[in-house]
């Protein structure tokens, strides 16, 4: 049995507290701590975990669609870079919470807001 998981869609995981590790079936490994993100690709087996039981908190969102397929085609979302670091975790989380809790905006506005947050993560820009 493989120790790697495979998902049906893309996912962004942001570590908000604690430390741990990431590895995938392509041989990539990374140490993780608060402020780091993981980009999970459906065809890449992956494993990520805290160093200790209950040793981290995370926010996690799965996504799919033509917009993100295009981002992959343009190498904006790159399988070669499955992990990275937010430059300002607290600002990013604040904006993420606003997007998630915003029930007054329509689906397109929420999608665009999520795209902005994803771009900030993979580009390493501040919010």
- Our count of helices gives 3
Estimated helix fraction = 25-40%
- On the 0 to 100 scale, the average pLDDT is 93
What portion of residues belong to β-strands? 25-35%
Low-confidence stretches: none
Radius of gyration: 14 Å
- What is the strand tally? 6
Q: Report on the biggest sheet.
A: 6 strands, antiparallel
Order of helices and strands: EEEEEHEHH
- Taking the alpha carbons of the first and last residues, their distance comes to 41 Å
Shape: globular
Q: Look at the helices and sheets and give the structural class.
A: alpha+beta
Describe the protein.
There is one protein chain. The protein has 127 residues and is an alpha+beta fold. It is built from 3 helices and 6 strands; from the N terminus they run βββββαβαα. Strands 1, 2, 3, 4, 5 and 6 form a 6-stranded antiparallel beta sheet that branches. Strand 1 and strand 2 (29-33) form a beta hairpin. The longest helix is centred in the last third of the chain and has 17 residues, at 107-123.
SSE layout:
Layout: E1 10-24, E2 29-33, E3 36-40, E4 46-50, E5 56-63, H1 66-73, E6 83-85, H2 89-101, H3 107-123
Antiparallel strand pairs: 1-2, 1-3, 1-4, 1-5, 3-6
Helix pairs in contact: 2-3
What's a quick, concise take on this entry?
With 127 residues, this protein is an alpha+beta fold. It has helices at residues 66-73, 89-101, 107-123, and strands spanning 10-24, 29-33, 36-40, 46-50, 56-63, 83-85. The chain is built from three helices and six strands.
């Amino acid at each position: 049995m493989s120790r790697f998981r495979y998902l049906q869609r893309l996912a962004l995981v942001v570590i908000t507290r604690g430390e741990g590790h990431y590895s995938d079936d392509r041989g990539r490994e990374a140490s993780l701590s608060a402020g780091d993100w993981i980009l999970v690709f459906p065809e890449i087996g992956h494993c990520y975990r805290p160093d200790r039981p209950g040793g981290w908190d995370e926010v996690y969102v799965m996504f799919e669609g033509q917009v993100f397929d295009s981002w992959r085609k343009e190498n904006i979302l790159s399988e070669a870079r499955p992990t990275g670091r937010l430059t300002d975790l607290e600002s990013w989380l604040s904006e993420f919470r606003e997007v998630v809790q915003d029930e007054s905006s329509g689906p397109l506005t929420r999608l665009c807001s999520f795209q902005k947050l994803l771009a900030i993560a993979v580009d390493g820009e501040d919010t």
